[in-house]
Design a protein that fits this description.
It is a single chain. The protein is mainly α and about 1500 residues long. Helices cover about 45% and strands about 5% of the residues. The chain has 57 helices and 16 strands. The strands form three sheets. An eight-stranded mixed β-sheet has the order 9-10-11-8-12-13-14-15. It has a six-stranded antiparallel β-sheet with strand order 6-5-4-3-7-16. Strands 1-2 form a two-stranded antiparallel sheet. The C terminus is likely disordered.
């Protein structure tokens, strides 16, 4: 920069301005003269009277002569007061440029600049070290420096010449004291801070008022390079460059850029009046004033300065001996401080230097502290230097908090290093993102890259083979020549042995490596980085990650801590580092204690960063498959005779190592947040493996590799970590050195092939269930995450043995038993939340694998847990004792636990094996209600009064329709029952039959057996005339009595004869008639078939009319007198009561009950954000056309759920106005829906909830995915706003609407058809209004989740969440007393947001924000995770389900759906109960409830 300008060093050396005339005389002459002349001048200054204070010097000649004496006096020994008086006089006189004083001679007052220039040259003599009275000299030098400070600050008329002399004076005295090798306790060591501090402050004042010319800058740079062996020089340089950077950023990047906060005492070093252009010019020059800070790592360079050479020649030593000078032992500390300063500047430019409330470091990394100097050196204690450095920059950790977290520990190495200061940042605090307006990576590296790359490779054992590839190392060799030092020379040095030497400088090297990682992690989406920078960066990382011969733990820790996003940044070729990072993670994660790292870092933070890197690498083996990862510099980092070189390996072969690291990390992790991240990663890898196998992709390794991996991955004979086939950079080491060897073995389960999805699944189940019931059951956050992982594993479609599934269920049951049995003081809301979550996990396993309950032991175990949750104890506590239900006192752990257990029982009894129902997954209930049933019955009337309503056990409402349906021709008793209970509405049609199915098929009615036909031709037929009396009667003789009755002819008279004849004629006629009838009868009888239907006795026909409601209730035993009696000691109603359906509002309340959901419902709003977009309108317009969105976005949408037609959909649609409609569409509306064809060219906006939406449901939850789209203003006015005519229509409806009960949710069945399309509004419209009088039921609390697809990751901070909140309206937020406006209480902090960023590799980077509270981290998706295209939809959906479940656990006002329905049923019973006496009730059963006329 100053190559064409000459340096002023020769001018300074040849200048004789500090010499006096008295130097020509013998020393005793000058001493006597000085003592005599100076004393009266000093006494005059110290006199208190005004007259004696006036200067005795009046002319120029007197002043100049006196100054010659004073100049000599400053060189005298310090045993007398002469030197002090000289200093008093000169410090007084130079104030002539500040303010006039009587003590200042008039000539100086008249021409202050000329005299001050001379005085400054004379004062140089004071700073020449004296052998004795060092303390006095220090105090005098301090006085002069303070005076010079005041002169520069307050003088307003200092000329350029004076400024230049002042700068040269400060350079000269600094060079005099600081250029020579440091003497312990000497003048230079005590004055270094003040000297360099004054130099920089005065230099900045000169830049403001009289900018120095290039020769002065060149001189300062050359001289400063000779002082760098003093810690204070680098320390002060770091202070001032940070203060300048703070000012520079303020005007370079504007007020929106994150401010770079520096301590006030540093900020005031930069004059406030310095303009922006001056700040920029000064900043760049001061930045390079220290020359190359990497030189500080090379004692050979530092010891070649002229003053070092002078001392070398004076003692006639060797160059090697000069490099052993004690002062050079501080170089590692100084090198680290220089790198720390550069690191602070880089952070400032990246915008991650945001201030924290606890003044912690700006990044969540632990900065390496400086190695302590040797204890034999009598220098300032290292801890004192650190305390001074606390106020330097934002990057220094305050020792008040940092030193107490981890006390210093001495490592096993020869050199003693200080521990890394523990971060004050809490574990849950998110990492700050770089500023969106930050400079490009290339720009930052153009400024600092050469220093950082060189520092990152300081003292690395680079073999000669590296130089063969010029394209890769040419820049390295040329640039590092000044700082390169051979290892062989260092080993030969007795002070720097082979083990100690690298450790000395590893702190500064670690700082440089960490800074480089932060720079490359700050790459913007689509930003190009020069290949030379990438190649050098990868070379630095490969060296830092080496664990073959020597592990440099500070460097390794720094790289890991600063690289969590390295594999998420789309760096070209970054995947070549995967094997090296895996080797590093194998060293860190399976190590439980990390004892060798504790001296440098907080182990928890190191593990967290390692887990982040692991999360970003997990999908790579499946994604790249058999693609080989090229290895840079093959074999060049290994010893020449080593057989293990770095060889290319396939990504798929790395899967086993990654899985083993993951499992080892889970086995050794103790931090809750870290554990949850690992659990999320486990579901990711298991699901990805399952999907990959399901689509038939390659699941085995290549033939060449598979032969080497035939061992069981977890057998006790092999580690499962160091695979010989992979040829990784990992060298084989004993178990004692590799903690993963001992940890990744059998963990309570048989050996498994974890390279298959089923093996991974079983391994995960075994690990999680074992730890869930041991280490984790006391920790709520880990327990919830583990239960969520088990729930996710239950949904993975992989065939596993029933024993492993039962293991998961049994472990959850054991977990519930343990938590319920804890002592009363431990029972809290959090504990009960854990139990509720366990019951939910149990439901997931049972619904996903219903066949498990076919096994008796599993069924008994699950039902015992349900009983425990409902009643508080098990009936069977031991093999002998059994307590029956009636004998137990119900004492559940809490009502929430009881509700969860009841929900589990409902799930077992009603959902297992019955989902999805015939009506589809959108509705687990029947889609039939009273209107539908009557419509298809044989009743002419469509009144709902045909139904009889009863309530069983105060929890089930029965609606009975006694008329058979139209499609049923059997005359048997039939009844259709709508059963409304806690689990929903179900329709049953029941018929009474007394015959088996086969008889019913052949006969419709009962017919008795027929009689046999008669046989008339059997036997002989005789014609015999029958007598009235026997023949013997005629033989009996008469007696007198017989003759006493005369015969008829004896008494006949003529009159009687006439009557007698008449009678005879009548008898003849009668006989003839009877004979004729008998003949006719015989003829008819002969013609009649047998049997005679008229006379035969046949059974009565079956009844055609039944009172089936009475029959059904009676058959089920509900009509007993005991069932109808009021319980005497309880407020509960009888077991059976009737409801009066004629009361007003009854059917509205029944409709309200039907609208209460039976499952939790969630709503997800999906947005698409293109690069640079900041407004909501731009974002909403993206989904209008497929040309605006990436194809993977549409694929992602369809992986979340299936499309549904809002008008026909019976489930949740994303808005209450269109949800749970079962009868709202009549035939014409259905045709209109069918005629509407969805446009082919859509970016997802068709699923905005107006006509279509995306929907997903399982047995336990339902989710609506809505993609809001932009609505034009005309559309808003026509559809959202109401015209005057529509308003009048609503006003006409108002009287009837107001008659309804305020508990109705949706749609009054009588009025929903009268509402036009404009009145039934889309949930994506900005103004959503429900019709007047319509109220919203208490469906909340509701959790809405936002998913954002961002093409550019940096746009996340610009996402206009507040502007988009009106778009995520679901209608649930509307209050009951506001019919025309939407009252939204959701804030942007309450809405969880999942950002999805597609990487160039085809993978997806995840960022989760807004999930706050005690349930902050939700799995499986965690911040920083990378997922595959296959698993993205599943993982997003599972995360949404878990977020909403946790929100419900956290809410105090949430009631499960079955509890809400039960409460509503109780309310209906209370309002509409028909309170009849027993006789009246029985009588009502025999009465008809409506007209019974049938259709012809």
């Amino acid at each position: 920069m100053y190559s064409e300008w000459r340096s002023l060093q020769l001018i300074i050396q040849s200048d004789r301005g500090h010499m006096s005339v008295l130097h020509s005389y013998p020393s005793n002459v000058g001493k006597d003269v000085a003592n005599a002349v100076v004393r009266p001048l000093g006494q005059g200054l110290n006199s208190s009277s005004a007259t004696s204070n006036e200067s005795i010097l009046k002319t120029d000649k007197e002043v100049k002569w006196t100054m010659e004496v004073l100049c000599y006096g400053l060189t005298l020994p310090l045993d007398g007061e002469t030197v002090k008086l000289c200093v008093d006089v000169y410090t007084d006189w130079i104030m002539a440029l500040v303010a006039r004083r009587d003590s200042i001679p008039q000539p100086i007052v008249k021409e202050p600049n000329l005299y001050v220039q001379t005085i400054l040259k004379h004062l140089q003599n004071l700073f020449v070290p004296r052998p004795d009275y060092a303390h006095n000299q220090i105090s005098l030098c301090m006085r002069v420096l303070v005076a010079v400070q005041k002169l520069a600050r307050e003088s307003v008329n200092m000329s350029r010449e004076t400024w230049e002399v002042l700068l040269l004076f400060l350079l000269q005295i600094n060079d005099t004291l600081l250029a020579a090798p440091t003497v312990p306790g000497g003048l230079a060591e005590n004055l270094a801070d003040k000297l360099i501090g004054v130099l920089f402050e005065v230099w900045f004042l000169a830049c403001t008022r009289c900018f120095p010319t290039p020769p002065y800058w060149k001189t300062a740079r050359e001289m400063l390079a000779n002082w760098r062996h003093h810690p204070a020089v680098v320390e002060q340089w770091s202070k001032v460059i940070c203060a300048l950077t703070s000012r520079l950023l303020r005007f370079t990047y504007g007020p929106s850029f994150p401010p770079f906060k520096v301590p006030d005492e540093d900020a005031i070093l930069i004059p406030a009046e310095m303009d922006n252009d001056c700040v920029a010019q000064t900043w760049f020059r001061v930045l390079h004033m220290l020359s190359n800070p990497v030189d500080l790592s090379n004692p050979a360079i530092i010891s070649t300065t002229p003053k070092f050479q002078e001392q070398l020649l004076s003692v006639s030593g060797m160059a090697q001996e000069m490099m052993q000078h004690p002062c050079l032992k501080q170089l590692p500390q100084i090198f680290f401080r220089a790198m720390r300063g550069v690191s602070c500047l880089v952070d400032a430019f990246l915008g991650i230097s945001r201030p924290r409330s606890d003044s912690a470091p700006p990044t969540p990394v632990n900065r390496l502290n400086m190695p302590q100097a040797s204890s034999t050196m009598n220098t300032t204690p290292p801890h004192s230097r650190r305390m001074r450095s606390v106020t330097v920059t934002k990057a220094t950790v305050k020792t008040s908090s940092g030193s107490t977290a981890h006390p210093p520990k001495v490592t096993h190495q020869t050199s003693t290093t200080s521990p890394l200061s523990s971060p004050n940042q809490t574990s849950s605090e998110p990492r700050p993102l770089p500023a969106p307006t930050r400079p490009k990576v290339n720009s930052v590296l153009n400024l600092f890259g050469q220093w950082l790359f060189d520092a990152g490779l300081v003292h690395c054992r680079l073999h000669n083979g590296m130089n063969r590839d010029g394209s890769m190392t040419a820049g390295l060799d040329v640039r590092r020549k000044p700082s390169q030092i051979s290892t062989e020379n260092m080993v030969a040095n007795p002070l720097f042995d082979a083990n100690e030497f690298p450790d000395n400088y590893e702190a500064g090297r670690a700082e440089a490596c960490g800074t480089l990682c932060r720079i490359f992690c700050s790459k913007k989406t689509g930003e190009e980085i020069l290949p030379v920078y990438l190649s050098r960066f990868y070379m630095v990382l490969i060296q830092g990650l080496q664990i073959n011969d020597y592990i440099c733990r500070p460097v390794l820790a720094s790289i890991i801590l600063n690289s969590p996003a390295l594999f998420c940044s789309d760096l070209k070729g970054i995947d070549v580092l995967v094997p090296y990072f895996i080797s590093a993670l194998e060293t860190i994660l399976p190590d439980r204690e990390l004892s060798k790292f504790k001296a440098y870092v907080n182990p928890t933070e190191l593990r967290r960063a390692s887990i982040h890197i692991l999360l970003s690498m997990l999908p790579l083996p499946h994604h790249f498959g058999t693609v080989k990862a090229e290895v840079l510099l093959e074999g060049k980092f290994s010893s020449e005779d080593s057989s293990l070189h770095d060889k290319p390996v396939t990504f798929l072969s790395l899967k086993l190592r990654l899985v083993n690291v993951l499992i080892g990390a889970l086995q050794t992790e103790t931090d809750p947040n870290n554990t949850q991240m690992i659990l999320g990663a486990m579901l990711n890898i298991v699901q990805d493996s399952a999907l990959l196998e399901a689509i038939g992709s390659q699941t085995e390794l290549s033939v060449g590799d598979s032969t080497h991996i035939s061992f069981k991955s977890h057998s006790r004979n092999s580690s499962g970590i160091s695979m010989t086939s992979t040829g990784s950079s990992e060298a084989t080491t004993p178990d004692s050195e590799r903690p993963a060897q001992a940890l990744l073995r059998d963990y309570g389960c048989p050996a498994l092939h974890t390279d298959t999805a089923s093996g991974l699944l079983i391994r995960s189940i075994h690990l999680v269930t074992q730890r869930l019931n041991s280490q984790w059951r006391q920790d709520m956050s880990i327990s919830l995450a583990a239960l969520e992982l088990l729930s996710g594993l239950a949904k993975v479609k992989v065939s596993v043995d029933s024993t492993d599934r039962k293991r998961a269920v049994s472990s959850v049951c054991s977990y519930i038993v343990h938590q319920c049995s804890r002592p009363a003081p431990f029972h809290s809301r959090d504990l009960h939340s854990m139990i509720v979550a366990a019951f939910q996990c149990l439901c997931v396993w049972l619904t996903e694998h219903p066949d498990m309950l076919n096994e008796k032991d599993c069924l008994i175990e699950v039902l015992e847990i349900v009983e425990l949750g409902i009643s508080g104890s098990k009936s069977k506590t031991s093999d002998q004792e059994v307590r029956h239900k009636g004998d137990k006192e119900p004492n559940p752990a809490s009502m929430r636990v009881k509700d969860a257990a009841e929900a589990t029982l409902t799930c077992i009894m009603q959902l297992l094996g019955a989902f999805p129902s015939p009506s589809g997954p959108a509705s687990p209930c029947s889609l039939l209600n009273e209107e539908t049933l009557i419509k298809y019955s044989r009743l002419t009337s469509t009144s709902k009064n045909h139904f009889r309503y009863f309530v069983l056990d105060n929890s089930i409402i029965l609606a009975m329709l006694e008329q058979p349906l139209g499609n049923d021709q059997n005359p048997c008793p039939s009844v259709t029952v709508l059963i409304r209970g806690m689990s929903g509405r179900h329709a049953w049609t029941m018929q009474l039959y007394h015959q088996p199915r086969g008889s019913r098929a052949s006969q419709k009615a009962f017919v008795p057996e027929p009689h046999p036909p008669p046989k008339d031709d059997v036997g002989i037929k005789y014609n015999v005339k029958h007598r009235p009396f026997p023949e013997e009667v005629d033989k009996i003789p008469f007696v007198k009595a017989d003759l006493s009755i005369p015969d008829l002819h004896e008494i006949v008279t003529d009159q009687l004869e006439v009557q007698h004849e008449k009678l005879k004629k009548l008898m003849a006629k009668q006989i003839l008639y009877e004979n004729t009838l008998e003949k006719i009868s015989e003829e008819r009888l002969s013609k009649t078939l047998f049997p005679d239907p008229v006379t035969e006795c046949i059974p009565p026909p079956p009844a055609q009319e039944f009172q089936t409601a009475r029959l059904l209730l009676s058959h089920f035993g509900f009509l007993s007198l005991e069932a109808l009696k009021e319980p005497g000691n309880s407020c509960r109603p009888p077991n059976l009561i009737a409801l009066d359906s004629t009361l007003a509002g009854f059917f509205d309340d029944i409709g309200y009950l039907d609208l209460l959901p039976t499952r939790p419902f969630e709503t997800v709003f999906i947005f698409y954000m293109k690069p640079g977009q900041k407004t909501s309108q731009e974002i909403l317009k993206n989904v209008e056309s497929s040309s605006n969105v990436q194809s993977h976005f549409l694929e992602f949408l369809l992986s979340l759920g299936w499309p549904v037609d809002v008008g026909k959909h019976p489930g949740w649609t994303g808005h209450v106005s269109t949800s749970w409609l079962i009868n709202a569409c009549n035939g014409s509306e259905g045709k209109e829906q069918e005629e509407m064809v969805a446009p082919d060219d859509t970016g997802g906006g068709i699923f905005n909830g107006e006509k279509k939406a995306l929907y997903y449901a399982d047995a336990l939850t339902e989710i609506a995915f809505v993609v809001p789209s932009f609505m034009e203003s005309s559309t808003d006015s026509s559809e959202s706003g109401l015209t005057s005519q529509e308003a009048e229509t609503q006003m006409d409806l108002l009287p009837s609407l107001l008659k309804q009960t305020p508990l109705t949710l949706e749609l009054f069945p009588n009025h929903s058809e009268n509402l036009s399309n404009s009145q039934r509004l889309s949930p994506t419209q900005k103004s959503k209004r429900l019709p007047l009088g319509r109220t919203v039921p208490p469906l909340g609390p509701e959790t809405k989740v936002i998913v954002v697809w961002v093409e550019r990751f940096d746009d996340i901070e610009n996402f206009p969440l507040n502007d988009l909140l009106p778009e995520i309206n679901t209608g649930v937020e509307t209050t009951t007393n506001s019919s025309t406006s939407l009252r939204t209480t959701t804030s942007d902090k309450d809405v969880p947001v999942i950002f999805i960023h597609p990487l160039k590799t085809g993978l997806f980077r995840i960022k989760v924000q807004g999930v706050t509270g005690k349930f902050s981290m939700v799995i499986p998706l965690v911040d920083g995770m990378v997922v595959s295209r296959r698993a993205l939809g599943f993982l997003v959906r599972q995360t949404i389900i878990n977020i909403c479940r946790r929100k419900r656990l956290e809410s105090d006002s949430y009631n499960p759906p079955h509890v809400k329905r039960k409460q509503k049923i109780v309310d209906i019973v209370h309002k509409y109960r028909n309170k009849l006496l027993e006789p009246e009730f029985y009588t009502s059963l025999f009465q008809e409830v409506g007209p019974k006329s049938l259709n012809p």
